[in-house]
Amino acid sequence: MLLKPVILSGGSGSRLWPLSREKNPKQLLKLFNEKTLLQNTVGRISGLEQYFAQISTPLIVGNVDYRFIVENQLKSMQSIAHCILEPVSRNTAPALTVAAFKSIENGLDPVLLVMPADHAISNIEAFEKAVHIAAKKADEGAVVCFGITPHAADIGFGYIKTQKNDQTGIHQLERFVEKPSLEIAKQYVASGEYYWNSGLFVLKASVWLSLIKQANLAIYTACEEAFQLSTKVDAFTILDKPSFEKSEDDSIDYAVMEKLGQGAFSHVPSYVVPFDVDWSDVGGWAAVWEISQQNEQGNVLKGVDPTLVHASKNNLVYSSNKRVVSLLGAENLIVVDTDDALFIADRENLNEMRALVKKIKDHYPALMENGRKVDRPWGTYDSIDKEQNFQVKRIVVNPGEKLSLQMHYHRAEHWIVVRGTGRVTCGENVFLLTENESTYIPMGEVHRLENPGKVPLEIIEVQSGHYLGEDDIVRIEDNYGRCG
Fold first, then answer.
1. Which end of the chain is more exposed for a tag (fewer CB within 10 A), N or C?
2. pLDDT band at residue 11, thresholds of 50, 70 and 90?
3. Domains 2-280 and 373-477 agree in fold
4. Residue 78 above 80 pLDDT?
5. Residues 373-477, CATH architecture
6. Each residue of 32-70: pLDDT tens digit?
7. How confident is the model over 239-286, as pLDDT tens digits?
8. Domain ranges of the chain
């Protein structure tokens, strides 16, 4: 049996605003430890080697905007994966379909372990055993889901009804229900016959393609065309945008899973493996509080001095800022402080988060797209200050990396090195710039900054001009394929 992990990494995670943004969603964030949710998901694969003789290179499917962030995160943990880049978001059913086409391109038909990139699982040993059980059934042509025993009626989850078989540890799937009303959810939980749908699946690539072709031919056809016309660049497959745009926006659950056990899909062998793994889909700030380590007062404090939280309990306080954050007499609050936004909410009222996010997007769209600190393939930049006709940035260039050879029509730049050594191209001149040295880049001059050293290069950049937008960059040469 050949197992191929497929990691779906295309979500935006808007319910974790302001930490999660459209260009830096929750799966790419460090929420619980020193690794991001994506890195933790990739890390789970290594332990499966004890159960499977063959594990293929993982596939990560995500938006093209995340390309370099994903690449850098994989590089930092010395992991290898092939990435399929979506030019537009089309939900999980198209994402799995293109992954299946990629999986069979060399005449193989692996068992796919389909995992969202933004889930948290703490009991890794139980996870590995459950995957092993599921893969055996999937290798026989079955569709296998993983069920979480519900501890409360929750309308945020899909539910799976099963015919339980306590002897084998794997139950036959009877019916799949996506996010019922609260009253129906209470009935499901009381009956003891239902599980929450974990969103993880195991099935053969050919089985998924057969099911999606039968259930939604438009998705199948658009994804097949987008894959056939895709561009291969190193470890990336970039889907053809006009073709992929034709695909309908649909989830795995709605497109296929809800149909299992019914009508034309009643013949499909479908099973549920109970998933006792301390699982969370990290659906919002309440979930982050629930699964994080709490102190004696029930507080979860990230980047906050615990001595400044007094007479307060059951709060989550998350600060990525250098400001001092303090709480007095607070209870059941979510407080998230970032460089450009402060979010405060009652932990019991987070069901209105989507409405708030919509208002923010309508009135302050830039706050939804990016935080103040922005990832680039060569490093990061942080917009420290901005007013009319000037902007100040802190730029960090990773060792061995370089910005594009470029010019600006509307701004000049002053560079001051505060750490490391930079190699500067300015017109016909190429020279080194070390700590406490500076240079001036005139408006319209072709220039480049690179880091030839072994430590990060940090500079302060002061831009001056009548227009300071990021689109005032004319790339002449670029290591990352961003010209044109």
1. C
2. confident
3. no
4. yes
5. Sandwich (2.60)
6. 888 999 999 999 999 999 999 899 999 999 999 888 899
7. 999 999 999 999 999 999 989 988 889 889 999 999 888 899 898 999
8. 2-280, 285-363, 373-477
Core vs surface per residue 196-213: b (16+ CB within 10 A) or e: bbbbbbbbbbbbbbbbbe
Structural fold of domain 2-280: Spore Coat Polysaccharide Biosynthesis Protein SpsA; Chain A (3.90.550)
Taking only the tens place, the pLDDT of each residue in 404-413 is: 999 999 999 9
Quick one: tokens of 49? 């080697």
Give the whole-angstrom CA distance, residue 442 versus residue 395: 18
